[in-house]
Amino acid sequence: MDREDHDTIRISLDGEAIDARPGDTIAAALLRARITTFTRSIKYHRPRGPFCLQGTCGQCLMRVDGVPSRLACKVRAEEGMICERQNGPLGVDKDLFRAADFVFADGLDHHHLLTGSRVLGRVAMEIARRLAGLGELPSQAQGPIPAELRTARLVVIGAGPAGLAAARAAGNALVLEKESAAADPAFASELMLGAECVGLYTNDTPLPGNALLAVRTGSRLLGIVAERVVVATGGASQPLPFPGCDRPGVYAARGLLGLPLRVGERLVVVGDGEELIDCSSALERRGYVIERVLDIQKVQPVRALGNPVRALDTSLGERIRCDAVAIALPPAPLHELASSVGAHAHWVGRLHGFAVQVDADGRTAVPWLFAAGRVAGLDAISSGEAAGRAAAK
Length: 393
Description:
Elements: E1 9-13, E2 16-20, H1 26-32, E3 39-40, E4 47-48, E5 61-64, E6 67-71, E7 82-85, H2 100-103, H3 118-131, E8 147-157, H4 161-170, E9 174-177, E10 190-193, E11 195-202, E12 211-217, E13 220-231, E14 235-236, E15 250-252, H5 253-258, E16 266-271, H6 273-285, E17 289-295, E18 301-306, E19 309-314, E20 319-321, E21 324-328, E22 332-333, H7 336-340, E23 345-347, E24 354-356, E25 369-371, H8 380-392
Parallel strand pairs: 1-7, 8-9, 8-13, 9-10, 13-25, 15-21, 16-17, 16-21
Antiparallel strand pairs: 1-2, 3-4, 5-6, 5-7, 11-12, 12-13, 14-22, 18-19, 19-20, 23-24
């Protein structure tokens, strides 16, 4: 059947044509085409597919139009886009290096491989060097990236509930949001969508201000010098460690909720607490048949089977057949920006990770830095309002 150009985009994957819909990411387009293996693991060349679908796990890195290691879950599909899967020198679907799992059944210690012989050790080292890494250099030299430098009194990183509450309480803030859509913050002086803060530093420019933010906006870079910063970066979906948890077909529940398609019909949802309950209900409303909801406090997954996953064995000795597994654990706080400039992160539990340590007003150990919401392990609205009020003084 001929495709309709007005509602179909055509991209290619490893030389094969793939149809996508307007607004699809590369990952969404491939999943529509029932392609679930996006790359191979670096050491054992095991199949890997997208997990978080939010740009944090790195399991969907792909070469796009000659540029290596782009996040397939974040790059929008465009007509004629050329996509290539990485780390499969003999073909990702039939990668003979997968035999490493069988040849080294007890594990491969590459640090001591063939070191008993100087000659064989050098040969092994050279092979390891050639197989190491992910992707190849870009096909063409990259040109200069446009950049500019500006100032702001208060910058809020993140336009989720905590960030918006902080901006509302502050009354006058520049809000950075890495996604391209967010709620309309009529209370903020400025909202920058599609603006991802990729670095936070103590200011050493001639411009007056305490903080320097490196912000990526599309193909441009923006440097912002600010007096104060509120970090409200939220959290990232985290996996649950059990054999097979990294197979294609195991996804973060929140990632599935953000996809414009279903990855099958029947799901097993595994997780804990309110996150498990809320995500299970939301996935059911999206049209999935929930085969089983497994609370890890009562039942542990033992092994995921298939590529993509087609069944899940449990500690009760049962095998649950499904089209995919959704992991619903509380998101881990994204504390890295705050930690990089000296804010303290403290352990808040096995299922919650490290959160930024703050006082009642959201102040961190850095005088000009505040944190609110999940990144601080706190309620979004109340902590956002407290941090916004304190940062605006």
